[in-house]
Amino acid sequence: MMSPNAAKLEALVGAPRRADAPLDEGRDAVRLVAMVEAAAVNSSPTLVSGGFLKNAKQKKVRGYRRIDWLNVGAAAIAIMVAAGAATFTGVQMASASPTQGAVQILRADESALAGAEQAAAASKARLEEAVQTAATDAAALRTALGVLAETEEQPATADSTALATVTQAVDGYTTALGEIVIPEVPAAYKRGKVDTGSLQSVGDAINRVQEASVEVDAVAEQLRAARASVDALTATFTTQLATFATSFAGHAQTEIDEYPVAEQEFRDAVTAAADAITATPLNTPMGATALAAYRDAVIALHDDDYRARLEEEAERESQHQNNWQSPPASEEPTDPGTADPRTTNPGTTNPPPVVDPEPDPETQPEDDDTFF
Predict the structure, then answer these.
(1) 281 and 161, same structural domain?
(2) Residue 28 pLDDT more than 80?
(3) Spatial CB neighbours of 282, under 8 Å, sequence gap ≥ 6
């Protein structure tokens, strides 16, 4: 009989389902029993054929290796020598006095100081050479720029605005180079008198070496800073020169357009000289040479244009003279044979002949009868 609670539950969710047993229940157990019985029947040992044993690879039996007692002895001796050397070194280190260790430190510091002094001296020499070379090149460039300006004897051979700008840049660069301070390298360190048997004396020498090293390091840092300043100035100056060089292409074209009568070879020479300036670093001796070549090319262009214009003017004047001296086509020329060649004007009568006057008898001197 169903309880009241079960009846309420069945009324809410429905009657419980009845689980039916699967149709293949127990089949796995039957299959397992069959497998065990089959294994029991085939449990007899397997025989291996003789051919298989014959073809199997036999493992080679390694024989007894003979010991090389000579090598063993040599190795033992080497081990003993290494152990002895290590023991000797340890004894030496243990027996070394503090003074000897301080002397070794002093020598190492002195060697490092000597290397730092040589490096500082080399850096100072390279920096001085760089500043001197830059100043020399800037002075040569300043001279080359001066000949491009307009004077009473020649016209300007560069863009006036660009020339004024780059001239100011050269002057500023030269001034900045002159303001570079190159520090002096301290004098080379000398040990002096040191009592290598006194720890106090050796310690004082080590302190002096360290103080000298600090001073050399400070100078090396100042040299690096000065070198960086020079490199920065040169980089800025190079950029300004490159900007100035680009102005020559336009200036060359303007010159060619304004002087069209010159021969083509002179026009080509101006263009080639402008291209050479663009491709040449102006803060070098080659830059000054390129500027001078452009100036000469422009002046040659002007001269050839002037020469060609004079020739054209002379040719026009000659043609004008020929046209003025030639008679008009409507008038007939007078025949020279119809006029007396002694007349001054053809078609007029000849003037009367000129007769010399006779001398006056009264003015004639009388003969002098006086004989000498």
Answers:
(1) no
(2) no
(3) 141, 241, 242, 244, 245, 288, 290, 291
